[in-house]
Amino acid sequence: MKNIVKFAKMKQLALSGLASSILLLTPISAKASIVQVSEGNFVAGAGLITFSEFAVNTVNPTYAPATYGGGAGSPTVTFDGFFNGQSLSATPAVDCPGAAASACVVGTPLAGLSLDPASPDTFITTDGSNPTSPVLSGSPTFNGPIAVLFDVDIAGVGFDGGFFNAVGSTGITAFARDGSLLGTIINSVTGIEFLGLVTDDGAEAIAGVFLDLVGAEPAGFAIDNLRFGRAGQVTVPGTIPEPAALSLLGLGLMAIGFARRRRIKK
């Protein structure tokens, strides 16, 4: 009887460890939020648009997967100034202190997240301050907002932003398909900076992103080398790599096996 009770306790501990391992493998999130990532967090299979795929002066380009070499399930990517439900601020000195009025946008996108065809156009142009020119600019040149829409939800997105002459001048904001805000990151250096974000659990929750001024930016901004990925194509900082998580699962299974061997010996 004592051996049976002892085995039951050991089995319970082993199963508890196994359950913990499984929980580590299963993201738990009631509402996605975003965390900042680097260019290196985008792995094999992630999409890349360099804006050299179309001619300079192309307005609001549309990128089907075949245009940028995307595989099955890759999104079609479209651009414009902002989303339906947003508008240029009527009080830019209040909403975006020091920013150019032409790039100060307010309002919440409507559910269904769609580009506003009446918003200022985006277009491909050259930029002597960017080593990988051409780039995508808003209107007017380097001083207009840029909205990026994906036809399927993605897990992460990022691009080279700049050329920034001021820290904290420009923000990239991610929205869900229902128009709700997921989060914003702001440039932290001058020059060209990679601004990237991913959902905190790696889930596909990002339908679009938006870049505009949040403060004074003397030289304006553009984007280049747009990267984006679905689940598994963008790694989340701080998560346990898959091999480590699987090793924890293996430890739980080994503990169960050990408990069974002890029962047989008794």
Give short descriptive properties of this protein.
266 residues, alpha+beta, Jelly Rolls, six-stranded antiparallel sheet, five-stranded antiparallel sheet, 15 strands, 21% helix
Report on the structure:
- The N and C termini lie close together (11 Å).
- The chain has one domain: Jelly Rolls (Sandwich), CATH 2.60.120.
- The chain has four helices and 15 strands.
- It is globular.
- The strands form four sheets. It has a six-stranded antiparallel β-sheet with strand order 3-4-9-14-11-12. Strands 1-13-10-15-2 form a five-stranded antiparallel β-sheet, with no helix packed on it. Strands 5-6 form a two-stranded antiparallel sheet.
- Helix content is 21%, strand content 29%.
- With 266 residues, it is of the alpha+beta class.
Topology of helices and strands:
Blueprint: H1 2-25, E1 34-37, E2 47-49, E3 62-63, H2 65-68, E4 77-80, E5 87-88, H3 92-95, E6 105-106, E7 123-125, E8 135-137, E9 146-154, E10 156-164, E11 170-175, E12 181-186, E13 191-199, E14 206-213, E15 222-229, H4 242-265
Antiparallel strand pairs: 1-13, 2-15, 3-4, 4-9, 5-6, 7-8, 9-14, 10-13, 10-15, 11-12, 11-14
Short description:
With 266 residues, this protein is of the alpha+beta class. It has helices spanning 2-25, 65-68, 92-95, 242-265, and strands at 34-37, 47-49, 62-63, 77-80, 87-88, 105-106, 123-125, 135-137, 146-154, 156-164, 170-175, 181-186, 191-199, 206-213, 222-229.
Structural class: alpha+beta
How many independent structural domains?
1
Portion of residues in helices?
A: 10-25%
Q: Cα distance, first to last residue?
A: 11 Å
Low-confidence stretches: 4-30, 242-249, 258-262
Shape by Cα distribution = globular
Report the biggest beta sheet as strand number plus sense, adding barrel if it closes: 6 strands, antiparallel
Percent strand: 25-35%
**Record field, number of beta strands:** 15
Identify the quaternary structure here. Answer: single chain
Classified by CATH, the class is Mainly Beta
Strand ordering within the main sheet? 3-4-9-14-11-12
